[in-house]
Amino acid sequence: MKISTLFLAIILVVSCKNHGRIDGKPESNNVSSIQKPPVISVEEIKTKMEFFTSDKLMGRKSGTPGQVKAGEYIEDFFTSNNIVPYFQTYRDSFPLKEGVGFNVVGYLEGNDVVLKNDIVILGAHYDHIGISKNIVDGDSIANGANDDASGTVAILELAKHFKALNNNKRSVVFALFDAEEMGLIGSKHMAERIKSDGSVPYAMINFELVGVPGAPGSELSFITGYDVSTLPQVLNNAAKDTVVGFSELAKKYQLFKSSDNYGFYQAFNMPAHAISTTDLALFQYYHTVDDEYDKMDFDHMKNFIEKMIPALDGLINGPRGELKMNE
Fold this sequence. Notes:
Layout: H1 3-19, H2 42-52, H3 65-80, E1 84-85, E2 91-95, E3 100-108, E4 119-125, E5 130-136, E6 139-142, H4 145-165, E7 171-177, H5 185-196, E8 203-207, E9 222-223, H6 231-239, H7 248-252, H8 262-268, E10 272-276, H9 298-317
Parallel strand pairs: 4-7, 4-8, 8-10
Antiparallel strand pairs: 1-3, 2-3, 3-7, 5-6, 9-10
Helix pairs in contact: 2-4, 5-8, 6-9
């Protein structure tokens, strides 16, 4: 062997030891290849909220062209972030009295051979009431910024985060429900469809009205059905903070039964709750044309999503036995 050839061979061996590959690119298990989660950005939250609250969507009433556009936006978001459909397509369709409604449902499979069979559903409703009979300053479009564009955007941000991190042991379903305003039709349809397939979800969390903070001094959020299961404790323990608390008003007005979590509770008798940050005694714009983009607190939304991430991470990756129904 010539000296020059020997020297080249030594260089190649050293290179392979240093980089794992002759081309200098790291192997897939190299630390440098681990993908960092995206930063939760106020600007991205604003962009999404601006779309969902646009007058062009005409209040996102189920079965209308505006609501279809909202659903297509969610489908495109899932596609661009490589989040696959949970069913054969993203759309989980169902009939309405007028037209067709559809949930938009994405899926992130778990990477633990056992725990991936546990499905955690994170949801929010993307419809609203459409055109209001109560006109304010010539405006009749009820854009539903807090109710529930805020929850919808929170789910999209969480979906992007967990997909990028890609370390979830349990499988996660991201469900954007239609026809909530018509009587929880979309979520009840999806719960029954999952039940007919023989699946039993591990937990369901619905995000409802998270666009503004609660009263000064209150917890970051409250969870409906606080005593129904150990989910509040699981989330708070994982976050090492009180991210969800008890609300006397939520109990008084039975808000546990008023949102998209309830259909899953009815179908499976499982931990299925709604989380909200809004004190309805203070928020005067519920189901009015004034529930607009400019009434939202985007720094609060960013803070809420960021603080929910470690709580949800504990739910998605924690051991079995912690989460259970209370008697």
